[in-house]
Amino acid sequence: MSTLGLEPSDTAVVLFDGTDLSGWTTRDGGAPGWDVAEGIATVTRTGDIVSKETYRDAYLHLEFRCPDMPEATGQAKGNSGVYLQGRYEIQVLDSYGWAVPGKGDCGAIYDLHAPIQPACKPALEWQTYDIVFRAARCDEAGNVVEKARATVVHNGLVVHNNVELRPTGGALDTNESAPGPLLLQDHGDAVSYRNVWLVRLPEQGSEEYGPA
Fold first, then answer.
1. Region for residue 97 given its phi and psi (left: phi exceeds 0; alpha: psi -120 to 50; beta: otherwise)
2. Distance between CA atoms of 70 and 78, rounded to whole angstroms?
3. What gap in Å lies between CA 60 and CA 97, rounded to an integer?
4. CB–CB of 131/152 below 8 Å?
5. Are residues 130 and 147 in contact, defined by beta-carbon separation less than 8 angstroms?
6. What angle do CA 5, 2, 91 make, to 5 degrees?
7. DSSP codes, the chain
8. Taking phi first (over 0 means left), then psi (-120 to 50 degrees means alpha), and beta for anything else, what does residue 31 get?
9. CATH number of 13-126+140-198
10. Per-residue model confidence as pLDDT tens digits over 145-159
């Protein structure tokens, strides 16, 4: 089922509402240089953008659109990335029509897990990521005792089912014990984003029974 245009719930934190990038910075804390017009933020080769909001467990929704680059191939074709907590990259790429997507194609956990099924739409069409993210669990010394995990739904199709994560190259840091932001990657291609929001999730449910 498509979630294109899904509106944030009452409990959501809106990261980009289409008006400006006041809730974002560059990697070094500066003002983002991406173009914002008609509710859309587009890469302009000015660097990655990083949300001021940080989170641990969360449900994330965002919509993206790859440019039409018919002469480009492979990783040069509409490339960007969505870094959960600034650490774990969900690849954005125009890999439409590739029957067996790999670890670097759209929907991949970059260089770690290929999508279990192809879900990419053609260039210039809006696409959705709906991600349930479970942050790493760490001991008091900061050592990871349970790896971070994610379930990723791409255009209504499950492409990752509760898979384990590790920090991707280009991550902001590898301090998995700390909350982290959302990072949207500038890989040099004019990829666009809109309708970006998250809902923070409790790290565990109650151990009690409900009302009798």
1. left
2. 10
3. 26
4. yes
5. no
6. 85
7. ---TTPPP-TT-EEEE-SS--TTEE-TTS-----EEETTEEE--SS--EEEEEEESSEEEEEEEE----TT--GGGSS-EEEEETTTEEEEE---TT-SS--TTSTT-BTTTB--SS--PPPTTS-EEEEEEEEPPEE-TTS-EEE--EEEEEETTEEEEEEEE--PPTT-S---TTS-EEEEE---SS--EEEEEEEEE--SS--SS----
8. beta
9. 2.60.120.560
10. 999 999 999 999 999
Contacts with 26 (C-beta within 8 Å, 6 or more apart), sequence order: 32, 33, 46, 47, 48, 49, 50
Contact 160, 115 (CB under 8 A): yes
pLDDT by residue, tens only, the chain of 212 residues: 789 999 999 999 999 999 999 999 999 999 999 999 999 999 999 999 999 999 999 999 999 999 999 999 889 999 999 999 999 999 999 999 988 999 999 999 999 999 999 999 999 999 999 999 999 999 999 999 999 999 999 999 999 999 999 999 999 999 999 999 999 999 999 999 999 999 999 999 888 887 76
Domain ranges within the chain, ordered by starting residue = 13-126+140-198
Structural tokens at position 172: 């902001």
Residue 11, amino acid: T
- Asked whether the beta carbons of 133 and 60 are under 8 A apart, the reply is yes
Q: Which residue has the tokens 């990259």?
A: 89
